[in-house]
Write a structure and sequence with these properties.
Blueprint (H helix, E strand, L loop, with lengths): L9 H5 L9 H5 L4 H16 L8 E3 L4 E5 L7 E5 L19 H7 L1 H8 L8 E5 L12 E5 L2 H9 L9 E2 L10 E5 L9 H10 L8 E9 L5 E9 L21
Antiparallel strand pairs: 1-2, 2-3, 3-5, 4-5, 4-8, 6-7, 7-9, 8-9
Length: 253
């Protein structure tokens, strides 16, 4: 979630502000708002069997919740039900850590249901922003449509994307990204967090400065795969790969 969070999830956040006269902007600016929604509303309601739930889904066994973001026509957020600050958390690299990307990819069906339209693999993007490119200090993966221009650029340079990380030949949303192909259909074999961490170790960079977007693709042999796109904080670039998504979902219109 980028720093334009001010009005996102505003209706849900408003219910957490006490007293009610607190300005909406002040409430929405709370960096723990998402964690409070999940831990104080969604999980207790799921445990009590209360319906409807603020979250669209709470899977306590898998350890995540899905929340419809008020920003965008069909954007959902995958949020762990345990405290995980963000991409910089060492918990994500633990051998026993859940692979939230698998659940986020499967949750694209919620986006499709909201749009009442099917989406191709390459029309869906999963994004997580850097520590300085987000407003919330609870891990959340943005699940939404890809920007049409970004999709076109990825197609135009598809042959330049290999199985190893390398600089993408053209800026995306005005920023330089690194890219690689992952030749699997479901993300169950390789965890993108761990894959990125292994790459930046040799670069002397930190995970907190990274942003990562995962989008589906079709490999040269016709098999389903993924493209991973990564950027890092430098200069005026706050490393928010959410910029590669289209919260208006123009591709579905």
């Amino acid at each position: 979630m980028t720093r334009t969070f001010t009005l996102r999830a505003a209706f849900t956040l408003a219910s957490l502000c006490i007293p009610a006269v607190i300005a909406l902007n002040a409430c929405a600016a709370n960096p723990d708002a998402l964690w409070q929604i999940v831990s104080q509303k969604c999980v207790p309601a799921a445990q009590a069997g209360t319906t409807p739930n603020t979250c669209a889904l709470v899977d306590t066994s898998a350890g995540y919740a899905l929340l419809k973001d008020i920003n965008g026509v069909a954007q959902y957020l995958l949020i762990p039900t345990t405290r995980v600050t963000g991409i910089e958390s060492p918990l994500l690299l633990d051998p026993q850590a859940p692979n939230y990307w698998v659940d986020a990819w499967n949750a694209r069906s919620y986006v499709e249901q909201k749009l009442n339209a099917p989406l191709r693999r390459d029309e869906v993007g999963l994004a997580i922003n850097s520590a300085s490119g987000r407003s919330q200090n609870q891990l959340h993966i943005h699940i939404d449509c890809m920007r049409p221009d970004v999709m076109q650029t990825l197609v135009a340079h598809r042959d330049a994307i290999g199985t190893q990380w390398r600089d993408f030949p053209e800026p995306l949303a005005g920023h330089t990204y690194r890219a690689r192909v992952m030749d699997e259909a479901t993300l169950e074999r390789d965890n993108p967090f761990k894959d990125l961490a292994a790459d930046i170790a040799a670069r002397g960079e930190t995970m907190g400065d990274q942003t990562l977007l995962v989008t589906g693709t079709t490999l040269a042999n016709g098999a389903p795969g993924f493209i991973l796109l990564a950027d890092h904080v430098h200069g005026f670039d706050r490393a928010s790969s959410e910029e590669l998504q289209d919260h208006d979902c123009k591709i579905a219109h």
